[in-house]
Amino acid sequence: MSIKTFYLIDRNISMMVGEYNQYGRLCSRVMIGSGSLLVERTPLQLMDDTLKYISFNLNGAYKGAKYILGDRRMCPVIVNPYQDVCIFPIKSTQNDDCIWFNPQHIVKTKSIGYKTEVELSNGISIIVDSKLASFNNKMQIALQLWKLSKDRGTTLNPMTSHFEPKKRRQLTKLKNGKYNFDAFNKKQG
Predict the structure, then answer these.
(1) 3-state secondary structure of 173
(2) Residue 60 per-residue DSSP state
(3) Most CB within 10 Å of its CB: which of 2, 64, 87, 111?
């Protein structure tokens, strides 16, 4: 089995996971299409290498994601903004066997007891140690980051549309159990 020393994450990646090579060194097993390759870099190094190659870095990508989504654990990250690649971890990134998924390649998820079967666009499925609701929540947050980042990146005048706070109005539940939709109709009319 050949091991690659260099690889850049692109839109074809469906998932990656840490895997030890024959010498006990943590590497990355990357699934591309229906095949996989082993890269002599940890998943976090691989992500940082890709971002540095296009003049960003992993620390900045995490900070940006947390700015957009709020401070959260196991935050997804945009690893290649030019190819719209966002990946998310299913457990702490400190775990060597943390699996990172590209939500663009997830076709279907299904509960298998306390685990989740994830069907990928290449026809391969994998069962992961995550409850379905937890997995789907992480996937939706990653898709939300991807969409918000893409929208912000294509806005004609981001200085006015994203840095000036918009007036927000909130629906609240009234004592009678209904929401206050009428309050908004009166202000518009």
Answers:
(1) strand
(2) H
(3) 87
